[in-house]
């Protein structure tokens, strides 16, 4: 199975009349400059496709509606663009069409601190959101590393380091405003914390990767800033020892806020990139949130477990500055890794398995990666059973790409045998379409296709992503 | 708007040839006895319809598939039946057809204690599930009061008293096996804690009320039994004082496990029914889960808040027996209420609002209910902003029903103005179809209909629920 090449889908015609109509409606908000189109036709992943024919910089829901209506009239694909930080080719114009950049729709529309909710436009990034609400005593915890847009995070069902405690976008998006394939606007969900009112359109939209609608408003949950926060590093004699510590922590129900694995390769890369002096051993990077007593209790339990597995004493980072430095280093692991092999591209894996299978899945895959000779690093949101290999390939070496994709495929097959998933948080895009088929099975994918067909009969919303369309 | 009458939908023919084929396939597993059909054609709500033509007692996924295939062949509606505890007419055969009773599919298929998951057949009830796993040190927290089936709870996106801490079925169903409208089987989700693999079919199915598929396996999350549990009662001089205490508790992020409001009417009914001597004032019934220190910390915070609002000292129930007695009394509030007015029927409301609006929504609705002269009680999962009035009407008095439905409608309209939902946990069924339309709007309901049409083109899966079908 060839899972790395975009399924060949003929780019559809973008009629000049459509582009003229777009220009007439949007003026300077529409660009066909080659550099602008190129920038909107790629993401942080390793795949490539010809760029979109134009970029519309939407400034309002009405803008999005008008662009989609024009596209529907001419049967032209539209691809929503947030911060460009997706990894699986979500933004690539594999069937041609236009990009709708939502970056200018970046306002906070209403902070409801008393309800622990906020409604934002989709283009605001998670850091900007947290900055905007910092005086409320609340925060938005979902942290995928990249400073992604909230709309993009909703569209890929993102999660990241804090998900082990606070959940993913699945649990934290309460309501959406969505522009549908016809250019109409619907609202899904309410600001109530729970609801049984009909089909869960919010959850259907979250993770739909721009294929069912474009989000123009997103309401998410917020959390009180914890009274006490402590971060700690603990190094281990082996990856297994680190992972076993995590498994027991989760099984005991310790409400740890973050628990990240960093393998020795990644530690070296991070040390070099971020001028740190972390011990060159597999590390767990942890964070505890709660009352001062609660944080202390949690940390003691985890320290006891770590000690049994040969972990070293915790090194604490208690000031906000130390913690920021540590998490910045973790978040820069990807860039640190790419810099470690000049000119390379990283192929990221994203499997997630039930916690009891984490050690088996990880260790077998480490052995395979070591045997392959391809440089790699390994980081993971291991409290959720989710981890990422980054295979650092020479983009000019088809052989390296093939071998890396082979490793990825073996890893996914292993995760699926263990009742896990091919993607914990990055989404399918064009890179994992075959994996989705393996994971979900023909019947479930057929159901997804039927939903797509029902909601987007012209197949203009980010076509060629998640699954290929059957011949009609 | 007339929200209480089932939308008239002509019962479809159930051809004798279909019933003969059903009998031939299922033998003694199929009953057409009037009493059996009548029992399967009603729920705990106040609405009525003619019973289904037959009941199939499914014992396997294959049984469900075969029954659905026969129904599809003859175009006959099928209605899944769990424990019969729904409240909104979900089980009523408003368009004729047959009931598929899943009560015999009540096995635990696999306990994965190390992963904090369990896979069960849909007919097992929540109490039976907790009984079956009691030696694992884990529990399944979702507790809607009634001893509902897990399949039924998934189908209505149920929640209940523990949801404020542990979430609803939305957050706790990981994976499903589903028999589709064609009788095929698909699997949605995996046992991984999170996933971004395509459309979230699990969440689409959860809350679909039997209209998109019949669940034949359900994988849910489990939680470690808390090290310490304490329950407390606190009485207040007014409903407002009780509710303000709850609002502050939630806004401070106290991870309270249960916080239930019981109004003075319900207290009197419960005292009479359960031979208790609760103080005849508005009460909060609370439960704290955690480490011994954590539980103490939480309780102290809430006690401080309660004191400020004039709450009396907490009365503690620390032994399991005392707690069980308390929660049983709470769960029996509905039956206690119905007994308080012999021959009456209860019409339950189920609004849920953002926590900051809870006091306003509740107090205005209490004033309206008091003014109406209709006997009522009020209980609520107030930590989630969800509460239930039960209007105790004389079923032979059309006037009382009309006035009660009027109160319900005013309450729903108020909740929607406050960005809440018409149903926090009971579902739409046939009772809230008009409310759903008001809440979600025409466009969103049209999207739900399009999905229904795509996945069940013959409209045989529990037809006439959630929304009426447009003319074709």
From TrEMBL, chains A, B:
GO molecular function: D-lactate dehydrogenase (cytochrome) activity; D-lactate dehydrogenase (NAD+) activity; FAD binding
Cofactor field: FAD
Spans through the membrane: none
Alphabetized SUPFAM superfamilies for the sequence: FAD-binding/transporter-associated domain-like, FAD-linked oxidases, C-terminal domain
Gene3D superfamilies: 3.30.465.10, 3.30.70.2740, Vanillyl-alcohol Oxidase, Chain A, domain 4
Name of the top EC class for this enzyme: oxidoreductase
Listed PANTHER family: D-LACTATE DEHYDROGENASE, D-LACTATE DEHYDROGENASE, MITOCHONDRIAL-RELATED
Family note: Belongs to the FAD-binding oxidoreductase/transferase type 4 family.
Name of the protein: D-lactate dehydrogenase (cytochrome)
């Amino acid at each position: 199975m060839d899972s790395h090449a975009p399924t060949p889908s003929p780019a559809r015609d973008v009629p000049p009349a459509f582009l003229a109509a777009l220009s007439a409606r949007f003026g300077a908000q529409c660009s066909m400059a080659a550099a602008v189109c190129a920038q909107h036709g790629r993401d942080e992943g390793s795949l490539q496709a010809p760029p979109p024919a134009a970029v519309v910089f939407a400034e309002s829901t009405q803008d999005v509606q008008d662009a989609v209506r024009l596209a529907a009239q001419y049967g032209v694909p539209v691809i929503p663009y947030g911060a460009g930080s997706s990894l699986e080719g979500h933004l690539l114009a594999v069937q041609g069409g236009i990009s709708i950049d939502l970056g200018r729709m970046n306002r906070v529309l209403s902070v409801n601190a008393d309800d622990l909710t906020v409604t934002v436009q989709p283009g605001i990034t998670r850091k900007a959101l947290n900055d905007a609400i910092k005086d409320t005593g609340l925060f938005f915890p979902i942290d995928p590393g990249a400073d992604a847009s909230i709309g993009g995070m909703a569209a890929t069902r993102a999660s990241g380091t804090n998900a082990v405690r606070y959940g993913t976008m699945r649990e934290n998006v309460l309501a959406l405003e969505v522009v549908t394939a016809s250019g109409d606007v619907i609202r899904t969900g309410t600001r109530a914390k729970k609801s049984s009112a009909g089909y869960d359109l919010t959850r259907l939209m979250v993770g739909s990767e721009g294929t069912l609608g474009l989000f123009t408003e997103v309401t998410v949950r917020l959390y009180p800033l914890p009274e006490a926060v402590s971060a700690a590093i603990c190094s281990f004699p082996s990856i297994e020892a680190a992972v076993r510590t995590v498994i027991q922590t989760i099984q005991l129900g310790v409400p740890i806020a973050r628990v990240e694995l960093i393998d020795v390769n990644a530690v070296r890369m991070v040390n070099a990139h971020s001028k740190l002096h972390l011990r060159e051993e597999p590390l767990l990077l942890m964070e505890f949130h709660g009352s001062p007593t609660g944080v202390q209790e949690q940390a003691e339990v985890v320290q006891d477990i770590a000690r049994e597995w040969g972990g070293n004493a915790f090194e604490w980072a208690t000031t906000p500055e130390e913690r920021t430095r540590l998490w910045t280093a973790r978040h820069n692991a990807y860039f640190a890794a790419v810099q470690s092999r000049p000119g390379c591209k990283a192929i990221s894996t994203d499997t997630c398995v039930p916690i009891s299978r984490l050690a088996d899945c990880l260790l077998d895959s480490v052995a395979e990666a070591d045997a392959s000779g391809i440089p790699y690093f390994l980081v993971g949101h291991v409290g959720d059973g989710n981890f990422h290999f980054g295979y650092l390939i020479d983009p000019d070496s088809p052989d390296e790409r093939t071998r890396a994709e082979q490793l990825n495929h073996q890893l996914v097959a292993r995760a699926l045998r263990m009742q896990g998933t091919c993607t914990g948080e990055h989404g399918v895009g064009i890179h994992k379409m075959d994996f989705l088929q393996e994971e979900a099975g023909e019947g479930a994918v057929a159901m997804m296709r039927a939903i797509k067909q029902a909601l987007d009969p012209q197949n203009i919303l980010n076509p060629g992503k998640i699954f290929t369309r059957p011949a009609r």
